[in-house]
Description:
291 residues; Rossmann fold; six-stranded mixed beta sheet; 8 helices; alpha/beta; single chain
Amino acid sequence: MDKNSFYQRVKQLKITSAKLVEGIYSGSYRSTFKGPGLEFDEAREYVFTDDARFIDWNVTSRMGSPFTKTFREEREMVLQLAVDLSPSLWSGSGALSKRDLLNILFANFSWAAANQDDRVGALFFTDRIEGWIAPGKGNKHASRMIEDCLTLEATGRGSNLSLGIRSSHESMKRRGILVILSDFRSTGYWKDLTIAAKKHDVIAIMISDPLDEALPSGGGVELQDPETLDTLYSQGNSPSFSQQYKDNWALMKLIWLKECHKRGVETLEIGTGEDPTARLLSFFNRRRKVR
Length: 291
């Protein structure tokens, strides 16, 4: 990508992201998430209207009279993006590839956090850790993150979601928001997702394409796994094979939805043929209403 093309792309991403910022995040950004929670403020003398569960027994024993803990909402919210850059994200049947869609979503979240002066960081992974950006604030930081997302050339061939989720969780020292951007073509990550969801507000965004769910009709079809490079040949006009292919991916999605919801992880699927900003607006408007 040449320099002029790169900066034009960044500019376009910023314009697109502005719609999301104006539509939902401004003024209601924090109500969209569970937030970082509460932090200890001070201990003061206990009064009869206080909750006895928050009595500070250490201070009480030293002072000889009951004291209670008081709390305040943590001022700073940290958003961590776990970004899957595995080869399967380069596929796509329309004008946008999954990776193009991922870039747009990444920019949306980065600039939305910057707009609210919250810290945002990112971890990029395939079957290994490809890069990490420490959480920071401001438009300059968001622009640097987006530049890294657009230009990072991954070296791994597979997708280790378990590693990506675990590493993201371990890098977050306090409660925050973890957004996972992936097509979730991986296995063995449920334990790490469970651990992350117990502490953080986790949102899993599945990036999909129509070809994930149905084969094109016609003659011979060559299917190649972009990560293993294994190839399978089939007749696209074979009703039995097409149905089996469709049923397989439908079942995988149902399992994904069930397992995520079981862990309190909210899910969103966005396809390459959809408007990602509009889908995010709808998702977060609904999410805000139920909080």
